[in-house]
Amino acid sequence: IVTVGILTLAGIWNATAGLAGGLLTFGMSIVTLSFLITTPEAWVPNLGGDLPTPAYGFPYLSGVGRLVIKDIIMMAGGLTAAAECANRMLARKK
């Protein structure tokens, strides 16, 4: 994770490193967001009991799900950094 951050930061000076860092950040976020689909604990469970539990399952996120959902911001940042570095690389080739 530290290497990905350093690559993204290096994109200020080197567009190729920034593109690699941005794409790695985007990919890492996609993998983390896949936990929402593959991990049952990401959603509020039906606790059962004597009283009905009306707020469970999709779309109610548990603490684990809320921790994972923050990666949407990292995914957007990585995509933005990669696009900006790719734009600089294309402008340099003209």
Q: What would you note in describing this structure?
A:
By secondary structure, this protein is mostly helical. The chain has one domain (2-93). The protein has helices spanning 2-10, 15-33, 35-38, 63-69, 71-93. Helix 2 runs antiparallel to helix 5. The chain starts with a helix and ends with a helix. The chain crosses the membrane at residues 12-37. This is Putative membrane protein. Keywords: Membrane, Transmembrane, Transmembrane helix.
Short structural description:
This protein has 94 residues and is mainly alpha-helical.
Work out the helix count: 5
Number of domains: 1
Can you count the beta strands?
0
Runs in which pLDDT lies below 50 for 5 or more consecutive residues are none
Helix amount, in percent?
55-70%
Query: What's the mean pLDDT score?
Result: 88
The main pleated sheet reads as:
none
Cα end-to-end separation = 33 Å
Oligomer: single chain
Question: If you compute it from the alpha carbons, what radius of gyration comes out, rounded to the nearest whole angstrom?
Answer: 19 Å
